[in-house]
Structure formats: C-alpha cells, structure tokens
Amino acid sequence: MTTILSIQHLSKHFGGLKVIEDITLDVSVGERVGLIGPNGAGKTTFFNMIAGDLNPTSGSISYFEQDITKVPNYKRTENGIVRTFQKNNLMFGLTVRENVLLVLQKMRNEHIQWWKKVTQRNYRALHEETETLLQEWNLEMYSDTKVQELSYGVQRQIEIVMAIAGKPKLLLLDEPTAGMSQVETDQIIALINKLPKEVTICMIEHDIDVLFGNMDRVIVLHSGKLIADGTPEAVRENEEVKEIYLGREEARYA
Amino acid sequence: MGKQWVKGSLLFFLMVAAPFFVSLYYVNIFTEILIFGIFAISLNILVGQTGLVSLGHAAFFGAGAYATGLAATHLSTNVFLTIVIGMLLAFLLAILIGFVSTKAHGFYFLMLTLACSQMVYSIIYQWTDVTGGSNGLSGIPAPSLFGDFILSNQVFIYYFTLVVFTIVIFAVNRLLQSPLGYVFIGIKENEDRMKSIGYNTSLYKNISFLIAGTLGGLAGSLYVFFNGFVAPTDVYWTVSGSVLIMVLVGGAGTLWGPVIGAAFIVVLETIISSYTESWMMIIGTAFILFTIFAPAGIAGLFSRLTRSIFKEKPHPVEKQYIEDAIKPMKRQSKING
Fold this sequence. Notes:
By secondary structure, chain A is of the alpha/beta class.
C-alpha cells in the first residue's frame, strides 16, 4: 500500500518543555487511525505540525513521499491535508451557507473572481454543491443562520462539514465529538464512516470506545512519546496503556 | 435587485439634475462629498471588508493627487492619462506599503501604515524642487476631456466626478459580494481558519490593500482637479484619521455607509466651520456618540430603523429547533403527571 504520511523523528520543544519527542510513524492510504492519550500528551501539537500550523523543532514530515516539513499550512490544505479544530474555529459572523461557500469556491477555483456577485444565478453549480452537502449533513435548515447563533453541537458539525467540503485526502479530526451527546456522537461517527474508503483519517479522541469498531489502528501518545501502535484490540491489551489510563496499581488487577 | 437598480438610477438622475437647481456653492460641496465618498469607499474595502484598520490611507490620496498634478503641469492635461498616472503611483506605493504592513496584525498594522504614510508626507514636504514643499503644488491646469474640450468650470468637474463615482460604486458593489469579496470577509472573521481552508491570506490581504490604495489614489487625482491645488497637509495623518472616521461613522462593511459618512463629515465641516473655530470638537463628539450608541454607523441605524418599521424578525430557525426538541419532553411530562 502507498504511504500517504511518513513522519521521521519528529520533535517539538517549547523552551525546555518537550511536548513531542522523537515520533516516527507511517500511515497508509485509506487507513483510519485513532490517536489517543491523556490530557497534555501532545496530540493536538502533533496535529498542528502535520497540518503546518506549527513548525517542528526537528524531524521531518513527508506526504506522498514529498518532504513538506517547510510547506505552509494553506498549501498543505490545497494538496489535501485538511484539519478540524479542537475548539470550534469558524467564521462566526457569517451564515452556515457562507462558511461552506468559502470552502467550495476555493475548491472550484472561483475564489479570485471579483466581477460577479455570489448569487444563485451567477454561481449555480457552486450553490447546488453547497445545498447538497448541507442536506447530506442535515444542516439545510440552518443555511441562513449565523454560526454564532447556533448551538455548540451544530457548530461542531459545521466544523467537520467545512473540512469534508475541502475534499481531503488526509483528514485530521481533532476531537470531533468533544462535548457532544451520545446520539450526536453516533451520528457524527456514522457520517465519518460514510466517507470514501480512499480518504485517510486521523482522529484524536478521548473516548477509547469510540475508536473501537471504527478505526483500523490506534496510536497512543503519552508525555509526547509514542507508546503503543496497533489494532484497537492489541492496544487495549497493552500493559503500558492500561497503566496510563488506569494507574499502576489498578492495572495489575485489571 | 430590481429595486436597487431603480433606487440607484433615480439617485443618479437626481444628482445629474442637481446643478440646475442649486448654486455653485452646493455643487462644490457635492463634488467634495463624491470625492471623499470614493476615498472612504476605498478605505472601507480594507477596514470594513478585510478587517485591516489602516491609519495611513492619506498616503495614497497624496500620491494620486501629486502624481496627477505634476503630470497635468508637465506632461499632458488629458484627464484620463493624468488619472491613470495618479492611480499607477498609488498602486506602486500600495505594493510597497502593503508588503511591509500586512506582515503585522491589528495594532501593529495600524502603526506601520501610519509610519509609512508619514514617510510619504515627509518626502513630499522636503522634496521642494518637485512638490513645492510646504507651499504645495499650485497652478495646475484644468484637465481636458477629448482634444480641446476642457473641464474648465466646477460644474464640468462635478459631472466628471459623478461619472467616475458611479463607475466606482458599481464596481465595488460587485466586488464586495463577489467570491473575492467573501474571501476578504472571511479574513476579517477568522484569518486562521481561512488559512486552514487553503487560502494564502497574506496574498489576499495584499490584494485588498492594492485595490484600496489604487482607489484612494483615484480620489486624490479627482481632488487635485477639483481643488486645483494640493498641499502636504492633504497627505498628513489627520486626513487618514478623518477618512477613517467617515468609514466608521457611516458604517464599515456596507456599500453606502462610507459615502454617507463622507457626506456627514463634509457637511459638518463646511457648515459648522463657518460658525465656529472649534468644529473639530463637534466632529469628535459626534464620533464618540456614534461609537457608543451606534457602532454600526449611520447605515446601521438606517437598517435598524427599516427593520423596526417593517417588523422583520430575526431568523426563527433556532427557536423552532428548540421547540421541536422540547415538545417530546413536554408530552412525556404530561404522561408522567
């Protein structure tokens, strides 16, 4: 299988604080990878470096065998590395439709046009694509509502829709279900599972149960180090992982 | 859209007819409003649309004014040629200043634009051989339209300005709601997210700066024909401040807001300064009152007014959603009770 992402000896230090220490791993095309670890393990920092929002202290990142360590984040997005954010990060003053339009017009390369208004008539295909996407995610009733007026859970969905609208090859989901109810979580996971098989997904998740059955592979980070990497079942049985999640004493009896 | 067209053309014909009914004094005020309207519209692209608050927009006004004035004196009086020269210099200046200042954010962007424009001011002030220094540039000939038709009086200048203004407002109206205009709004709303979507935000900030600067130069060019004279005080930072006040008082981010703001300030300046020396104080007070009580400017007040007249309610979707969610619970509680 082709390797989509290859990370070599990646480290990130903030002064004396080693947030990520010497991580090396490969991800194949189409793989569904879950990333777990306790708070402060460096998961989001790790994502930030893959997405290009943060420069690593040392090490390298390759995407389809091309070194992208120094490539700025917007170029990575253009090439298919798309992320969502742990904290809702949207154009809050704009409507849901406008948020999605901003992504789709970029995808369709219409974003540089200045002589036509973005009306239904001038940009029919663009609007149709937007409607389809919003319907697929059951968000069409919010199309003309400003994002800031919507509930947290709906905003969370828009966060993911915005990423998917970018037709990612590598989708980085940073705790997509954080703060959501069980029903909402199940919905989101179902929709993520509906994505085409060739889309590679890396997902940070606190809840280990969400990853089982949905992910091919689970990676565990702890204090910036990679401590386990394997199938969900194998990781669950891993002694070290048990220790981190349950504590040393309890792990012995678990 | 049809309604807008009717309103727009009605206003245009009203403006065309105006010189037949009012005295030259008022025609001059109208011209000044149109020129500063263009100037405020250009700054609004930066401040209202892209969210970059600049305090150095007078640099482009000055560049356009001086380049056009010098070209008219030494080269040709053709109005199109001289205006293009003025806009070209403003464009080049915008590339330079934009490249430097868009690297910074927020307050630092404001300080950099201020510093750059003050540099332009001191160049104009000290380059006496070319610009006339503190005496300003005088003796600028009246522009010619085609061949020997000369825009010799203020009414011709008014009509010419009106045509240019109409073209500008037509083009900017499209720009503000075009895909590119939405990119600017996106940057104002959330620059980080725009980067994550794949937009090279510094490129678009520079494009916005270029458009704003070039249009600012156009306003300067028109001003020099209107006034027949330009002095370093027209490039001083207080001019940048005054146009920023026009945008904010009128309503940043709207099409007509900056024009209304320009009209408001020009009228206030002309009328009040004939009664009292301290007219700046009145404008200052007005500005303070607007920022506190009507942060969306005069345009915002208008739309609030029309909304309350027509009782247009905000979008009811969320309310419906909540009610739908509560309904089953209510039913349940009835059963239980």
